[in-house]
Amino acid sequence: MVCAGVGGHRYEGLQAELIDASGMWLRRVVTPANLPYAQRVWSLVDEDYRPIPWQLDFKSGYAWSAQTWYMDVAYGELAGVDVKVPWELARMQHLPLLARAYHAAHGDAKVLYLREFRNEVLDFIAANPPRFGVNWRCTMDVGIRAANWLVAYDLFKAGGAQFDDDFERVLASSVYDHGKHIVANLEYSPQLRSNHYLSDIAGLLFVALHLPRTSEIDAWLAFALQELVSEMAEEFHEDGSNFEGSTSYHRLSTEIMLYSALFAVQMNEQRRAGLQHYDVSLHRAEPKLKSPQEQEFDPGRKELFPARFWQRLANALQFTKTLLRDDGEIPQIGDNDSGRFLKLCPAFVRMTAEEAVQRYENLAGIPHRDDELYYNENILDHTHLARLYDVVFSNERKTPPDFETKLAAHMGQGLSLPTAECRGLDAEKEDFAACIPSLPLSGLDMQEYRFAAQNRITELLQCFSYPGMGVYIFKSPHLYMTVRCGEVGQKGNGGHAHNDQLSITLRIDGVDLIRDPGTYLYTPLPAERNRFRSTKAHFTIQKDDEEQNPFYPDRDGLFSLKEEKTFAKVLYLTRSCIVMEHSGFGDKVYREIEILDHEVRVRDYGKGITRICRDIPFSNGYGKLLRRV
């Protein structure tokens, strides 16, 4: 395999291997201590199966080693190398799709999908011993992998699949290894937690729900439920928006919460009984496991979780439903690493490889056949969360149109759940002009931007306010606009926020006039990571090349801000206007946005502010870079 490289950086990481049925090839893959078990597992794999190079970054060509102790695995240091490539592959989020295909197939085709699932799981277990190699380095990915294995397994079994005893034993043993690893490597901090810790907890929950009951497994289950309740309050605002300052990470965390909750409420009476008498002393990690009497979850209730948990989850789903544009996509506010928990019905467009190469700059130079089929996943299509809200929480209970919503509707049957709280503004407050004299605009420079509309954009205009994340959504049949003003996320760390305070995205009559450029990449190209999150990349107030919030220029600062300086505030808000300020440049700057019948008008005020001049390509998903027309 010839890897094309990233940003001009290419590595020769793997040599061709002669694969034998006895597993002698694994001597070059795993340590001597891990070799005997790896070979026994490999002996269960079909002879015509081709193993997957799990340690390879197939973009740059760099390869890690499954002979390296997981805590000694280094990443983020070499130019062009992206650890997310093997991590994402090893999440194995494609396995539930194999199970879906199994349900739809007939005859010999069903066997094909079942054998592929079985072979891939065995392949991974043989070539990735616990706590060795890159795919055990990040606990988040361990948790997501365990969940996807088990959901795929459940779906296969629900479709009548039968697995041999040897596979069942190997799978159960590895699932237990995943649980042990998660408990020993929780990405927990009392100061700051994020989607990583939430993924750890979800993975542990799925493990505990599937393994046979023991005192240890009961403690794992109780701890996972305890922390799900805790993290709902920690990571989601009361209005439902997520605390990371990113619309894409909001989807990831919402998926984790929803599916964890729906699977948890399915547990039988024996498991629920175990939640009333577990041994607290069996849990030795931080945070501590509370006693059954201290827990907020109630195993005696079908809904299991407290009402405030379900309310915040309903609000989180409604946030995305409100955020959707007329084309079903969301605006990219903050980071987008294309992260998902379960991809049961991914949105995609079929095209040829040649069409994909013509569309995406990042595919240049990759060997391909022009007529080869290419599945272009639409990462920005979040409509599934809107459908999931409808079938789980909405009183309307619309007919589920696809596999994912049918599954969620089935799992949510009989639950007494709240509906989302309305975030729309009820009525106009005061005239826009009344606000302007109260601003200290004397002596400030002004920049003005006008965007014309043929149709009346104020007709049926609504504004939805989400002050938790700091997102304000203006919608009418002919207008879609988001405004960003509020926290930088992660309690001031800003790890997944961009320098986008007071920025807008704007779409009039289905035409994008202002888009957030996205994220593109993280560690492979630090300069690109910082370019896409910079002030200059966003349609916000500019002051030469100053950053509204400074960040460290080296690799250590790629997931944090040096400090928060903006402290952005909304000063005035109605359904047709918003006035804001931030202090990121020292002296305060102000932005007024007014929606008129046939125009959106933006006025910026501040000392020495300059004209917005953005020159940056558009990334519609992690690693994807659209060619400029």
Walk me through the structure:
With 629 residues, the chain is α+β, with helices and mostly antiparallel strands. Helix content is 31%, strand content 11%. The protein has helices at 35-42, 84-90, 95-104, 108-127, 139-158, 165-184, 195-210, 215-235, 247-264, 269-274, 307-323, 353-359, 383-392, 403-411, 526-532; strands at residues 348-352, 373-377, 445-452, 462-466, 471-476, 479-484, 504-508, 511-514, 569-573, 577-582, 589-596, 599-606. A hairpin with a 2-residue loop joins strand 11 (589-596) and strand 12 (599-606).
Short description:
With 629 residues, the protein is of the alpha+beta class. 31% of the residues lie in helices and 11% in strands. A 5-stranded antiparallel β-sheet has the order 3-12-11-10-9, with no helix packed on it. A 5-stranded antiparallel β-sheet has the order 4-5-6-7-8, with helices on one face.
